[in-house]
TrEMBL record:
GO molecular function: DNA-binding transcription factor activity; sequence-specific DNA binding
Species this protein is from: Pseudomonas fluvialis
Main location: cytoplasm
Pfam family, one: HTH_18
PROSITE patterns documented for this protein: HTH_ARAC_FAMILY_1, HTH_ARAC_FAMILY_2
GO BP, one annotated term: positive regulation of metabolic process
Name listed for the protein in its UniProt record: AraC family transcriptional regulator
Database matches in PANTHER family: HTH-TYPE TRANSCRIPTIONAL ACTIVATOR RHAS-RELATED
């Protein structure tokens, strides 16, 4: 029986469980916790390489993942809290890439079960499992975020289909453009434009989970058409969306749609 494919989405994290076909080139718009269910994967980042069954890849890096078989990956929170909780618990490091999570064996056993289960976990159950895996002691993150950057992220999310100019975003939080650009990259790890693209991918996937067609979802999220969405998906995620959404076997696509309730209708003017 073909293995399950899971794509679960929340505002804080995104989780994928499925097949990896050969090498994948990632331009990381968010940090990633990655598990290899069948055989260790090789991660290459610049001149550094690391082979492991669990990998922690930081935002902003260009990483090539080589291997195959089933993988599970979780895109982590935008402000680096998850990364801070996880980093000390990985045993190896090569450059910016870390490998071998302390809880790797138990996590892999659980992920194997979900890959073959007749009824995989619910959205809430998986959210709870990830929270326990990432922050088992429920510690508060010591990463101190700038509230102005948090507000810029909110503004982008509130009008995802709008291409607000960086000058407008900067003015809204009392910064000049150069300072916003600097602070945003320091806090989030990627430029404003890249984050907007990443959030549009998230919104498109959530809308598809809610029943929209890919074309309608892409337009509502601010892409010019589905081809624009697919190009952006490939550039950031390293694979075609069809490799996830159209793979043989059973696809379980779930999303927390509550944050999208106030999403402007397609065609509505940007504020």
């Amino acid at each position: 029986m073909p293995a399950n494919t899971l794509l679960y989405l929340w505002p804080q994290r995104t989780f994928y469980l499925g097949e990896l076909d050969g090498a994948v080139h990632l331009q990381l718009a968010a940090s990633v916790l990655l598990f290899a269910l069948d055989a260790p994967l090789l991660a290459r980042c610049g001149s550094h390489s690391l082979r492991a069954s669990s990998l922690l890849l930081p935002v902003g890096e260009k990483v090539v993942i080589e291997g195959g078989g089933r993988i599970a990956l979780c895109y982590l929170d935008v402000f680096g809290h998850d990364l801070q909780h996880l980093s000390p618990r990985l045993q190896w490091q090569r450059g910016p890439v870390r490998g071998a999570l302390a809880e790797q064996d138990a996590a892999l056993a659980w992920l194997h079960e979900q890959s073959q289960a007749a009824s995989p976990v619910t959205l809430d159950e998986l959210a709870a499992w990830l929270e326990q895996l990432i922050n088992p002691q429920q510690q508060s993150a010591t990463v101190r975020g700038d509230p102005r950057i948090a507000r810029v992220v909110e503004l982008i999310q509130e009008d995802v289909a709008c291409n607000r100019q960086i000058a407008e975003l900067a003015a809204a939080v009392g910064l000049n453009v150069s300072r916003l650009t600097q602070l945003f990259r320091q806090q989030v790890g990627i430029p404003v434009r890249r984050y907007r693209q990443w959030h549009r991918l998230f919104v498109t996937s959530c809308l598809v989970a809610g029943g929209a067609s890919l074309t309608d979802a892409a337009l509502q999220a601010g892409f010019s058409d589905s081809a624009h969405f697919c190009h952006t998906f490939r550039s950031l995620a390293g694979m075609n969306p069809s490799q996830i959404l159209l793979r043989p076997g059973r696809l379980f696509l779930q999303a927390d749609l509550r944050p999208l309730a106030a999403l402007p209708d397609q065609g509505k003017e940007c504020r």
